[in-house]
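Postdoc handover notes: sequence design on the structure in folder B. Input tokens:
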């Protein structure tokens, strides 16, 4: 399993609650987390499927957030 990281516009626990249904649907509950302490608000996603990267970005966009993959 690989951890893919994204810089996001998620800012608080309320934002996390908003994105939870979409991210749970895309990659499954307990397979992602957001570091709200990080200035970049890094979203870490555990996946074995590279196609999930696009789906994660799409799910965040659907509820008004942005995500950019970081290497």
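Designed sequence:
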């Amino acid at each position: 399993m690989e951890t893919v990281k994204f810089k996001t516009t998620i800012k608080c626990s309320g934002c996390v609650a908003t994105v939870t249904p979409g991210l749970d649907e895309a990659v499954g509950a307990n397979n992602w987390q957001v570091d709200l302490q990080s200035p970049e608000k890094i979203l870490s996603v555990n996946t074995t499927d590279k196609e999930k990267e696009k789906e994660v970005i799409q799910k965040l966009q659907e509820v008004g957030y942005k995500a950019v993959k970081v290497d």
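Context for whoever picks this up: The longest helix spans residues 13-27. Don't rerun without checking with the PI first.
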